[in-house]
Amino acid sequence: MDFKLKVIKIEELYLIKELWEKLNRLHMKDSKFFKEHYATFTFY
Question: How many domains does the chain have?
Answer without folding.
Answer: 1
